[in-house]
């Protein structure tokens, strides 16, 4: 085999490896934001079928496509593409890199500080609620458990009509596979650390 032909094969293999890592990364990011393929397609301008092929490692996307997806997922192209299974793992996120969700009333902020690779079974958040703030969530998958540790202030949690209060220094665990609401009914801001175990399944 000629050196040129060998080089082409090495390049082809390299492209497949990069695409394999890229597909996993895009899928994890999409799931971290709870986006469907259609929603990511709408936000990025990349066809749903193309995104699906990328996630299944069936195509080598152009840099322009990767850029559009990275913009829709609030990540730089470099961070989306940078992936090495063998390199030492150290990852630091700045405040600007940390995804932030805001409640419908604008009074609750949920910083997604959990790791994208664990999003399907473990999620964790930094939660802030102004007085009167309310964060309403639909039920997650069966068996999911949420753990809310209040650092400052006090919160009220309503799980399908069962209401419990939790204040600074206390932790409340509850089923989150049904509608649940976290409220700040106090007069001061509240701050909590929230962990959601998506596959706890301890109550099955």
Helix-strand makeup class: alpha+beta
Largest sheet report: 6 strands, antiparallel
Number of helices: 5
Name the CATH superfamily classification of the largest domain.
Jelly Rolls
Series of H and E elements: HHHHHEEEEEEEEEE
Low-confidence segments: 1-17
Q: How many discrete domains?
A: 2
Cα gyration radius (Å): 21 Å
Overall spatial form: elongated
Distance between the termini: 59 Å
Strand order of the largest sheet: 1-2-3-10-5-8
How many distinct beta strands? 10
Mean pLDDT: 81
Give the amount of beta strand, in percent: 25-35%
Oligomer: single chain
CATH class of the largest domain: Mainly Beta
The proportion of residues forming helix, as a percent range, comes to 25-40%
Structure characterization notes:
- By secondary structure, the protein is α+β, with helices and mostly antiparallel strands.
- The protein has 2 domains: 3-81, lambda repressor-like DNA-binding domains (434 Repressor (Amino-terminal Domain), Orthogonal Bundle); 100-197, Jelly Rolls, CATH 2.60.120.
- It contains 5 helices and 10 strands; from the N terminus they run αααααββββββββββ.
- It has helices at residues 3-32, 37-44, 48-55, 63-72, 77-81; strands at residues 100-102, 108-112, 122-129, 134-137, 145-152, 154-159, 162-167, 171-175, 180-183, 190-197.
- Strands 1-2-3-10-5-8 form a 6-stranded antiparallel beta sheet, with no helix packed on it.
- Helix 1 packs across helix 3 (48-55) and helix 2 crosses helix 4 (63-72).
- The longest helix has 30 residues, at 3-32.
């Amino acid at each position: 085999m000629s050196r040129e032909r060998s080089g082409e094969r090495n390049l082809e293999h390299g492209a497949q490896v990069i695409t394999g890592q890229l597909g996993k990364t895009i899928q994890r990011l999409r799931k971290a934001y709870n986006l469907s393929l259609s929603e990511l397609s709408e936000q990025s301008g990349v066809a749903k079928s193309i995104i699906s092929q990328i996630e299944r490692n069936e195509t080598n996307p152009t840099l322009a496509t990767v850029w559009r997806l990275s913009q829709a997922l609030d990540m730089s192209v470099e961070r989306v593409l940078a992936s090495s299974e063998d390199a030492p793992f150290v990852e630091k996120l700045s405040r600007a890199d940390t995804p932030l969700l805001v409640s419908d009333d604008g009074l609750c902020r949920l910083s997604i500080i959990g790791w994208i690779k664990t999003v399907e079974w473990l999620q964790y958040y930094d939660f802030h609620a102004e007085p009167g703030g309310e964060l309403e969530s639909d039920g997650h998958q069966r068996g999911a458990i949420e753990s809310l540790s209040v650092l400052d202030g006090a919160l009220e949690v309503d799980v399908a009509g069962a209401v419990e209060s939790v204040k600074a220094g206390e932790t409340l665990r509850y089923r989150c596979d049904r509608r649940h609401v976290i409220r700040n009914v106090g007069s001061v801001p509240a701050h909590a650390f929230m962990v959601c175990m998506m596959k706890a399944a301890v109550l099955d």
